[in-house]
Amino acid sequence: MSPARAVLAAALLAAVGGDWRVRLVDVAEPAGLTRVSVYGGLERKRFITETNGAGVAWIDYDNDGWVDALVLSGTRLEDTSRKERSWPAGEAPTNRLYRNNHDGTFADATDKAGLRRTGWASAVCAGDYDNDGWLDLFVTSYGQNVLYHNREGRFEDVTAAAGLATRGTRWGSGCSFVDYDRDGKVDLFVANYLVLDLQAAPEPGQGASCLWKGIPVNCGPKGLPTDTNLLYHNEGDGRFRDVSEASGIAKVKGRYAMTATAADLDGDGWVDLYVACDTTAAILYRNNHDGTFSDVALASGVAFSEFGNEQAGMGLGVGDFDGDGQLDLFKTHFADDIPALYRNLGRGQFEDVAMASGLGVQNHYVQWGAGAADLDNDGKPDVFYATGNVYPEIEALMPQYPHRSPKIVFRNLGDGRFEDVSARSGPGATTPRSSRGVAFGDYDNDGDLDVLVMNMNERPSLLRNDYDGGNGWLMVRLQGVRSNRAGLGATVVVTSGGRQQARAALSQSSYYSHDDLRLHFGLGAARAADLVEVRWPSGAVDRLRDVAGRRLVTVREGEAPAPAEGVAPPGPAGRGRY
Amino acid sequence: MSAALLLLLACAPAGLPAEDAANALASARTLLNRDRPREAIAALEELDASDPAVALVLGVAHYHAGDAAKAVALLQPAVDKLAEGSAERREAVQVLGLALYLAGRIAEAVPWMEATREWAGSNLELHQILGSAYIQTRQPDKAREVLARVFEVPPEGAAAHLLAAQMMIRLQQEELAEAELEKAVAKDPRLPQAHFLLGQLALFRARFADAAALTRKEIELNPANNLAWSQLGDIYVRQQSWDEALKALQRSIWVSPFYSAPYILLGRVYTKKGEPATAEAMLRRAIEYDPNNKQAHYLLGQVLQQTGRTEEARRELELAERLQGAAGR
User: Fold this and answer.
1) Is B14 near chain A, with CB under 8 Å?
2) Inter-chain CB proximity B206 and A338 less than 8 Å
3) Quick one: which of A561, A371, A574, A555 has its CA closest to A481?
4) What are A473-522's pLDDT values in tens digits?
5) Per the CB < 8 Å rule, is B299 touching A363?
6) Across the strands, what pairs with A533?
7) A106 φ/ψ sector (left φ>0, alpha ψ -120 to 50, else beta)
8) Do A222 and B326 touch (CB under 8 A)?
9) Residue A408 near chain B (CB below 8 Å)
10) Which residue of A has its CA nearest to B298?
11) Residue A550 to residues A470, A473, A523, A555, A571: CA-CA distances in angstroms?
12) Is the separation of the CB atoms in A243 and A291 below 8 Å?
């Protein structure tokens, strides 16, 4: 670039909010994340089962201090029938686990880890249901959900023994491990999307709910029967008991439930559940502290848009966008709509500030996996979401609704407003894909957040964050004692440079996905956090003061260390059970 | 005996005496004429539906009973078996076109509706639906030509572009509408409503500066356009420019006080300005003019909740929920 052009470019950058030093580069291919996630037809989706795709996870399944990548997959129907296609031996699509080689590459560990499975996978949520220090997995599907018990790096399907086998075919969607009764053991929430008999489902265009802007497309969800959600209590002996009715979870009807996340959203010390719902009101299951839940989404302001309109909820981000120490919610929606950004006003009240925040400028794409990810470590979580249309056949007729579309990145300006920096976030953001699940984590342990993305009928994207600024960071790993071992449901508030940041340890968020459980905080110019406060799901609170940055800190419940204790040595990795 | 009935008699199904079949068909026709399609279907239960005459009456009955897919299934194989130029064939062609449209098979519906134009050139409803079909199959020029006929304006004039755009917006074809509106204002820069709709589309895509400029152009053409003032207020509300919004919305109401939108927006403005009593009054006025407006009930519920009137708030919010329609796909 010539000096004159460089000056002009710098001036333009300054005019739109300053330098943005985040560059996302898709390194999936050289890193070895090469297997395609088959999901329905390539150019046409006949049924809704082919459209929604699946999630991904960053999970340190072998406790070596480096997060591994799980990418879910679907399958495909025969062209002329409703049967699942049969595949040559060894070629059937499967969920894939890629083990982190600690050098920027991964090795396919699917078979070794016992995760080979072909079907219509939807979501993954992670949690340590037996508190043995090894993260277990629950994978939902159209068909049968599966509970995988992690036995020191090898997973075993224990669904039936745990009492979680599905009767008949249900469409499991979101899920979250959640200790709703504070007994120190994570229970399991499972959402169901809708009721679908694939053999009886109408073909595209064969009904009023089978058109989009006049174009025949796969039918639904409108017009298809809804299902109810499930809550299983962890009995502590490896088994779960269905408490959906007794807990009030199944009372909520008429929703097309999708991503589910569990966090203390009203600050009362008990973990709540928030569920994004397609084309219907979102659900906020408030924890009543007595083993029951009530849906308070409407009264809390998180059911609808700012003006009270239903939205097609898909993905969820949870983070503290305005730096007030409270968890805000971000929800993604369908094309021609904008996401919702629900600012937490306290006392269980929220306000949708998406339009006021400047997030309305992107509204062409169907939005999916999302997160409150501080990509430039400035202490202000940015917005990242993946996009991709559900009707591949639309693009030829209406090019403004492409099947493959970019990732959207909004930089948090810190004053309640966001700036669209998608085009300036590198080729990993701008390269169009039909993406679904997204997970955030630091796979290369360099202190910034990288992004794993599930793409429909393509290999995943591994968006390495080549942030080259000087901002500091801190990662916090939780180890529950009275609380569940993984600390799921805990809220961590970091104070640095006069600003607070709240983050929650989540079993699921984004779209059907699971993030790195090492909670990431940007510190901006600060070298240390003034205060790290952990609000455990047991109700206990631990506080650490003057915690040096650029490191991973492990906080064990009730044993908040003095500044020099319990802190990993300089360098990001920390080996051993979390 | 009518020619139609003679035809029906000739087509009497095997296994049922011809006279009985003719009587059943005649009875079904009578029931159809009396707007009792389900009874007509029942009357034809024992007849052979592969017979084109039976399929015609049965198909028409299913169409009127709201089962467009069944009507298509009956009429599609029958239509070419009916005599060319006959009243029966014309009826089959017309109903098949409409049934295909209602079944969502819009591209397939178009040739049948075009064929119907040959003998139903003055049928406004047919042309309106055909125009919609052309929009939904993204044929804007044909849509404009057909809709110009419906509204009796020259097909190449600015008014035809405006009308086509208005229909395109109704059918969620925003990009097509924008192109039509650009042509409309190029042909007649002072055409009423065109800048207003362009502003509406810019607002839809959150291009607030464009939206405000276009809406102001509309107001320049007609300062008494209360909808344009309301839209300008809406744009300012979305930009959090409360004082500017207030001015525009007051002007909208002063021009015409009987439209709910500006009151809803004023409810939002006064809520954000910390004046809940005034916000409540505005929202109640909106509900007075538009009792089933979900937005008004929702925002009123929020205002009531903020002022601690929890039970009243709950009622309003639940009403807003019951009034919800479809979102997204």
Assistant:
1) no
2) yes
3) A555
4) 999 999 999 999 999 999 999 999 999 999 999 999 999 999 999 999 99
5) no
6) A493, A543
7) beta
8) yes
9) no
10) A308
11) 11, 5, 9, 16, 7
12) yes
